[in-house]
Amino acid sequence: MDFKFRGRALKFGHNIDAEQILPSRYTLSARQEEVVPHVMSGADPHIGIRLKKGDIIVAGTNFGCGSALEIVPLALKWAGVAAVIAESFSRVFYRNAINIGFPILEGTGVYAGIGEGDMVEIDLERGLIRSITKMRNFPTAPFPDFMQTLMHVGGLEEYVRQRLKRASTAT
Predict the structure, then answer these.
(1) What fold characterizes domain 4-170?
(2) pLDDT tens track for 69-109
(3) Burial of 97 per CB tally in 10 Å (0-12, 13-18, 19+)
(4) In terms of CB atoms within 10 Å, which end of the chain has fewer, N or C?
């Protein structure tokens, strides 16, 4: 499988919690058009001006801490964020992101080594994060094949749907 992303880095700090990613007053809506304008607005009230489809969020430690709502990583996906790279993630955010097929990678040194606006490339298959701007690599563990499959099909729900369809046509 070949799963690569290239985008502009938008940099955020450490301990970016769910409230900063998607303020709680918007978490009750399941409508993209109501949620997307508020993605990352708790961390940066002017993010709507800066956030473009294909951007890659770069953060420090403990990204996604706080609420365990699946809508939080889903909102990032809906907003067109290509991926999130962080030093570490909250375990629940990490699992929710994988379940919805949203690419996230942990990389040591990414917070200090990637600057705001840097062009960044991610290769999920090889486990590589690269600042094209600074010509610097940040190796990380590649996703296991199963998790890469979840990314390709769009998440756990779609994976199960496809498996059930194949099973029903095989009988």
Answers:
(1) Aconitase; domain 4 (3.20.19)
(2) 889 999 999 999 999 999 999 999 999 999 999 999 999 99
(3) buried
(4) C
